[in-house]
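Dear colleague,

Thank you for sharing your sequence with our group. We've completed the structure prediction you requested, and as agreed, I am returning the results in plain text so they can be pasted directly into your records. Please verify that the sequence below matches your submission; if there's any discrepancy, let me know and we will rerun it promptly.
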Amino acid sequence: MAGRWRHDNPFEEGDGDVNPFSHPRPTPLPPEPAGFYNDIGASVDIPLDNKKDLKKKERELMAKEAELNRREQEIKRREEALARAGVLIEPRNWPPFLPIIHVDISNDIPVNLQRLQYVSFASLLGLVICLFWNILCVTGAWITGHDPRIWFLAVIYFITGCPGAYFLWYRPLYRAMRKDSGFSYGWFFLFYFFHIAFCIYAAVSPPFYMGRALVGIFQAINEVGENAGVGIMYFVGFALFVLEALLSIWVFQRVYSFFRGKSTEAQMRPDAASRAPPF
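Please find the predicted structure tokens below.
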């Protein structure tokens, strides 16, 4: 054979031939700059403090810390000086939501006297409850038509009796048991006696001038005949004052027994020393 058979492909481009189905090639895009980790875009400069500013702030913080440490050491030195001088530091810690007095019986009072001190604190709280309930009862009596002066007198009992009880007999007893002070014991006995007398008087509440300012048995009997609801409140107040008086008498007896026992022991010590054998 003179030559091979050739199959002409109409889609192939030959020399000088133009394929009618061909498309023009796309123009390539210009190259774009790529940043670090393909972060395309212009860099943003974040202003930073220079080294001088950082060192200045560091020096200021160190100076403040040194000043706080100096003040803390000064406070500790003063507290130690007061403790050596016998001055007791009593930070306010009770009640927890609004500290107004210092009560830390478990740390301040000897173990053998803690129960008695807790009961005396209950006596203080009992007086606060009695005087507050007295205000409520007298308010009811005032609303039902009694003299409004009894209400003002009941308020005076409350605003003078509560802080007076704390400063006149509870705090002296606290200090007496904490420091073993005979003067504080004497102060406590004097004013606690008046406290017991007031509780007994309030529980009786004789029909004297402005007698209904206190919820005693006589006023409760008179009030229940006029207004049953207020009369029942007066009877409850009478019961509270009776319980307060009984509790206070128990505390007085216990504290007196303890104080008398200590006095007897102190008097017996010299006799025991004189009877000791000379060897």
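Summary note from our side: The CA atoms of residues 146 and 212 lie 9 Å apart.

Kind regards,
the structure core
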